[in-house]
Amino acid sequence: MARLAQTAGLTDIQQEILSTVRDFVDKEIIPVATELEHRDEYPQAIVDGLRELGLFGLMIPEEYGGLGESLLTYALCVEEIARGWMSVSGIINTHFIVAYMLKQHGTPEQKDHFLPRMAAGDIRGAFSMSEPALGSDVSAITSKAVRDGEEYVLNGQKMWLTNGGTSSLVAVLVRSDEGHPEGTAPHKSMTTFLVEKEPGFGEVRPGLTIPGKIDKMGYKGVDTTELIMDGLRVPADRVLGGVTGRGFYQMMDGVEVGRVNVAARGCGVAQRAFELGVQYAQQRHTFGKQIAQHQAIQFKLAEMATKVEAAHAMMVNAARKKDSGERNDLEAGMAKYLASEYCKEVVEDAFRIHGGYGFSKEYEIERLYREAPMLLIGEGTAEIQKMIIGRRLLEEYRFQG
Fold first, then answer.
1. Which of 98, 286, 348, 376 is the most buried (most CB within 10 A)?
2. Catalytic pick from 80, 379, 383, 396?
3. Is the pTM of this model over 0.85?
4. 379 a catalytic residue
């Protein structure tokens, strides 16, 4: 039987990359993922392996030492990695959002300075929009940058940084009123700063503190942190693109890539949940036969497989739309919304198939059951996606009456 979630029209190079990543996942990630996750241990050996494979430079152009691959290739790799352990896909996601933002919006000097080292994995990226009090309301950002000669002074508190501790470059969105008079729309007075720091926790450079890891229900191993700026001085040439007031648009462009990534993660986790469910259904016997032979279980497996296929197809469509250079916020929102919701449902069905054993930490499905809810929140909740989708639909189907 063919595997679920196959992708038509891939080149030989794409197929070779995916085959290599799939083998790595099967041999190096799945056998150790649950143990590392239960210990909340950063998967350094796995990350080193991904670095050797060149994955940190997957989408970075060849002129900067990367592989120059498409968003589709990246998304399909993320799907495979998340199938092994979703936390590992999170480690590379924020790195790629920052690399993508640099590629699309950085000055030539910024690209030359950062991208070659990001491609090699020597610099690892994180990005920071959210704050403790604002949730999805990006326009309510209070962190601020004030010009002081050839520098900016940044103050404020940011929240939910994936790779906050292990990263060495953070793209931080703050309010900057310079050149933007009072009354300017909030999204037109935001700027993205490229903040370099030492990996680790505590005061990682003067004026910048990364407190310890946030203790989470799932999505363990990868470090999620706060970021506190107290008189942080950043050179003016570290404004992304060299011009203030463009940060909101730069971040939203990056988040579209992130939403495709989250959709791909949902596809990968759902695919693994299906694999675990269909395998267990053929091992477990009740009433004298495999539970897979019971019609109720077959109905669940059919629904699960259909959801895996549908989510994968929407994710691929969103990635291809972005690769074409077209606006893809509608497709990315739909893919992220559907994949995260279906992932939750497929994982829960696999959990139910396992019965009481699904509640045991000895079984992999227990980990997936705690990981899936993060996808409902990351890169925008379901409600945010519905707002994006609804507004775009009204643009496309405007009634002329």
1. 98
2. 379
3. yes
4. yes
